[in-house]
Amino acid sequence: MLTNLSIKNYALIDHLNVKFTNGFTVITGETGAGKSILLGGLSLVLGKRADLSSLREKEDKCIVEAEFEISKYGLEAFFQENDLDYEAKTIIRREILPSGKSRAFINDSPVTLDILSQLGDQLIDVHSQHQTLRLADNDFQLKVIDALSDNGQVLSTYSSKLLLYQATQKELQKLVDFQNSATKEHEYNSFLLQELNSAPLKEGILEELEEQYEQLNNVEIILEQLSHGQQLLNDEQIGLVNLLTELKQVSSKLASFGHQYSDINERIKSVFIELDDISNELNILNDKVEADPQMLEQVNAKLQLLYDLLKKHKVQTIPELLEIRNALDGKVSATENVVADIDRKKKELHQLEIALNTEASNISKRRKAVIPKLKKQLEETLTDLGMASATFKIEIAPSKEFKPTGKDDLSFLFSANKGSAYGDLKKVASGGELSRIMLTIKAILARYEQLPTMMFDEIDTGVSGEISNKMGDIMKDMSNTMQIFSITHLPQVAAKGVHHFKVYKEEELMGTNTKMKRLASEERVVELAEMLGGKTLSDSALAHARQLLD
């Protein structure tokens, strides 16, 4: 419930701070005193949009702060989801800066306007003329029926399955779209993949083939140079091997004359061993090298194939070709498997549809079962409110499609007078009748679900006398289980309040200021008497006011 409201620098309000408690609170005041300003300030802190014109002093910021007792609201999950500190006494604050920027806070944590609005909707239900128009909204009408049906849990289960069903539908459509587009490209992709698979693709292959091609293409030069190398090494007179052999004999004789000679001897031995090994290697290479035109042609063909593929796919390296091949392989495989995937997804969707229809049917049965009860409660209460001939025609028919609230088409028709045709509420009911119907519905809802603090803004407009008395009784009964506010011009309703606040204006040096105060017993008598007979208080008006309070 709302326990405190503070408003600074808003419209005609300089600074207002009011404490509230549970039960039925009425707010009265003359036309233009600022009751709408009070509601405007409250709407700000509940997340409604604001503009600079709402600032009283344009150079100062506007601050609206409200404290709520929320321990019975079950909002812990909301706070956790939005990473907010949960407090049983929660404070929400809204600031409008002179620059036009707006800031919002929940328990001193900055939040977006959307989050503030989401929380505000769960804390206070402000009933205004605009909300009365929701009576004709099927979603609102179904909410009333579902409250009586205790459909909360089954609707939650249905919603979870509907989300899964819709996600599966999207997945199926995605597969179908992929099949339609992929079929056109499948043959081309398959050709490209086959072409790449026929090529000897592996990392390093290009360099390997280029080296092999150079060797096969230059056999004569290689043999000539190998032969010349062997001659330089092994010629009997000038061959390096023979000359080094003589040098090794010389160093061997010197080795015994000191370590510097022995070191040189060892080094010459090493050079001899290495040179002898090179000579043997050249002999082996010479034996291996031979002209092979056929092999040269094969290597050249492979190289040309690789060069052509690199050019065709506009890449520079073999690893890039390998990536393209893998991607094509994935596309071709996906296209070939998509038919099976579509069949599997269709079966999955069919099973979900069966489950959804079962849930929707259960929801529909529960709704149909309570419609007679709702119709009776509405008509009986409206009879007390001066609408004895009011009747409702509420019917549910199966819908062809799954909706967020089930698979029902709701017809919620109204007739205000005996013999009159049934029609849509907003078309056949007057403003006063709509207000009474909405009050009745809210009263019924209060019996079946935990509603937030409710504020009725002149819901009694267009009614008077005994009917207003009954409306006051209904709101007072609702206040036994929830906090109720009523902004009213009717003394009969005001007299029903457990707490009575008056909104009034005072002219001060700095201008007109809207204020609000809680009325004591005698002040209530005077306020009601003025509402009954005007500013000139008569004994009869005072007596009538006391009678209303008794």
UniProtKB/TrEMBL annotation:
Listed GO CC annotations: bacterial nucleoid
Record GO terms (molecular function): ATP binding
InterPro entries per UniProt: DNA_recomb/repair_RecN, P-loop_NTPase, RecF/RecN/SMC_N
Residue ranges that the Swiss-Prot or TrEMBL entry lists as coiled coil: 199-226
GO aspect biological process, one term: SOS response
Superkingdom to which the source organism belongs: Bacteria
Record keyword DNA repair present: yes
Keyword terms of this UniProt record: ATP-binding, Coiled coil, DNA damage, DNA repair, Nucleotide-binding
KW Coiled coil (keyword) present: yes
Chain ranges of the RecF/RecN/SMC N-terminal domain: 2-508
UniProt cross-references to NCBIfam families, sorted A to Z: recN
Entry's family note: Belongs to the RecN family.
Function: May be involved in recombinational repair of damaged DNA.
PANTHER family with a match to the protein in the record: DNA REPAIR PROTEIN RECN
Protein name per its UniProtKB record: DNA repair protein RecN
Organism: Arenibacter troitsensis
